[in-house]
Write a structure and sequence with these properties.
By secondary structure, this protein is of the alpha/beta class. It has one domain: Ribonuclease Z/Hydroxyacylglutathione hydrolase-like (Metallo-beta-lactamase, Chain A). The chain is about 25% helix and about 25% strand. It has a 7-stranded mixed beta sheet with strand order 4-1-2-3-5-6-7. The longest helix is centred in the N-terminal third of the chain and has 18 residues. It binds zinc ion (ZN).
Length: about 280
């Protein structure tokens, strides 16, 4: 009897392991959080019609997700050329409105090195949008697949006049031959729900946010510039917007997903919230 029981138990184990790979894989996802230095600006840029005249320091978050299907970077921060002079030379006059403070080791390449990776290990670079504090170092990833919304690419190359200042063409003028996935829809990147890109237009024409579903941490919605500050979730219009109605709809969309999945919205530029994060080399899983 035992002679037959053991092989059947073994084959049952085999079936369990082979048929349900999801859990084994999920536990291998690690999400690292870091910041590309800080930006100093008038808070009125973030919370319309309130807090004007108060200059504050905000974080510039970047995320590295080590997933079994490939290494992902979500936003590449501010171009490393802003390091020597607070962006005066590289960004020009806009550096007076948005003043960067960054050290060289806060570049996404050196942040990757701190967890034993290089820029060439990165399979996917997901861009929330192409503003100067989000896609600054796209050039460091010539061999990756870049995922951006088609509307964002078009607007980055020829922005509306009133949105032009925050796009630095030098950041991406040499990327025409890069491998882009130009999204017009939401995307479940690996088909397993762990990494989902959602349309959150409003801040710009082609803004997107990233949902990361982690086995232990749960659902995290990386808002990027779809919601900068806690006030934006309470109805205060984000200061810099392409379209107010779309921006507010996108905030409602994120809140619905948050509530449905008992998740969290990680704001784009809240120092108060960012200071509660575990930072690289620690991670969320
Ligand atoms: Zn932006």
């Amino acid at each position: 009897m035992t002679k037959y029981l053991i092989p059947s138990l073994l084959s049952l184990l085999f079936v369990l392991v082979v048929i349900t790979p999801g859990q084994a894989q999920d536990s291998e996802i690690r999400m690292y959080v870091t910041s590309s230095g800080t930006l100093e600006l008038d808070q009125g840029w973030l919370t319309a019609m309130t807090n004007h005249g108060t200059r504050i320091d905000i974080p510039v978050p970047m995320y590295i997700i080590d997933h079994p299907e490939g290494l992902i970077v979500f936003d590449t921060g501010m171009n490393i050329n802003v390091v020597p002079d607070h962006g005066e030379e590289y960004w020009g006059p806009v550096a007076q409105a948005f003043t960067p403070t960054m050290t060289r080791d806060q570049g996404i390449d050196e942040q990757l090195q701190q967890i034993g990776k290089t820029t060439s290990d990165v399979k996917y670079v997901i861009h929330s949008h192409f503003h100067l504090d989000h896609a600054g170092n796209i050039n460091m990833f010539p061999n990756a697949t870049h995922i951006v919304r088609k509307a964002e690419l078009k607007n980055a190359w020829w922005p509306e006049q009133f949105q032009r200042a925050a796009y630095v063409l030098d950041d991406y003028k040499n990327t025409r031959n890069f491998n882009f996935i130009e999204l017009i829809d939401d995307l479940d990147l690996f088909g397993d729900g762990t990494i989902e890109l959602i349309d959150t237009k409003g801040h710009t024409q082609g803004h997107q946010s990233l949902i990361v579903r982690l086995p232990n941490t749960g659902t995290v919605i990386l808002a990027a510039d779809a919601a900068y500050m806690p006030e934006n979730l309470q109805g205060t219009i984000p200061g810099i917007v392409w379209n107010v109605e779309e921006a507010m709809n996108s905030i409602e969309r994120m809140k619905m997903i948050r509530d449905r999945e008992n998740g969290e919205i990680w704001l784009g530029h809240s120092m108060e919230q960012f200071q509660t994060r575990r930072l690289l080399p620690e991670y969320y899983d």
